[in-house]
# Entry
Amino acid sequence: MNFNEALSWLYGFQKFGMRLGLERIWHLMSKLGNPHRDIEIIHVAGTNGKGSVCKLIGSILQEGGYSVGVYLSPHLQRFSERMTINNKEILEEEVASLITIIKPIVDEMIKEENTPTFFEIVTAMAFQYFHDKNVDFAVIEVGLGGRYDATNIVDPLITVITNVSLEHEHVLGRKIKDIAGEKAGIIKKDVPVITAATRNALAVIEKKAEDNNASLEIVDSKRWERMHGSMTGQEFLIKGSLTEHHVNTPLLGRHQGENITLAIATIEQLQMNGMYLTDEAIINGIAKTVNPGRMEIVGTEPMILLDGAHNVAGMKSLKKTLDEDFVYERLILILGILSDKNIQEILDIITPIADEIIVTKSHNERACSPSKLKEMISKKEVVVKDEISDALNHAKKVAKKQDLICITGSLFTVGEAKDYFDK
# Structure
């Protein structure tokens, strides 16, 4: 089976949708010999910032001389982005080889009417891959929620919960405490927990940590200070448990201070457990961390910004960053949002500051139709373009050198925009 055949087989499981639960992934892993049990794992959940925190932790550990696997989802442009070791994506032939190993197990599960989901198969592949490559650490991002997410079969060194806000309410619950309960489901007995959650969400996490005799470290705004921020990068003072760190990062947006502090708190926990890692590795690891599609500038004159803000909290962070750190004449906004999001609230945050709005859609089957988005935007002229490439072409025609074109609303929208610019 070659790479294209393997990927075609794998994507065939997307039609089965999303089914939370651990019984299928446990079955898969047991048939593979439970490779995840031989890996030192850091498990990361939360609403926003998971990907940045995972990449920051991975980069710091790599800078310290360790071999580090990072598992993320979804991908922006290539399936191979989901599994990296020392920032290098899994090779096509390695993907094909893993699927060749897993396919007979899945075929047997199908016969038993116990068909696994796309994400469960990919998660099993990631664990097998990191095991085969004998990584020193694996940083694993939760796909959805936590308690019944396929990644929640691990016995990690450290559990990280970034923050908690409303998302996927149709699956995780309509209240913050319900969503926090799902995310706190990754907390394990005697495993340290680090979180930036607040208020009701924090109370849920505190209770879960206490029930599991898990030490809890809370990262709040007092733990970090932004010294400088611009369109080119930022400087933060991070007040760690062991020492203070002055760090520079190419990641944009004030909210990255929280993500960096969470990453440093995780590293400090490993240091306190006996791992050797220098302050220089922390500083250099943060300086080298990039996260494509999140506050990513891909063009100048006019400036073109990609940001995968796909929920209310993410859109608030984008708006704040545009207000604080960007200088431009007009904001030309290209929006493509998934239909299962809080669309009206997202639109109400970002559209008032736009001078021109173009609505579009990704090829994802969950994408909201541009015509519906237009109907939901009041007091603004809105241009409808069914294809992201057409939306970008239109934006570039009407933009002047001092304007800012911002493409946002979904990681899938941003991923297709990156494809456009790559071509």
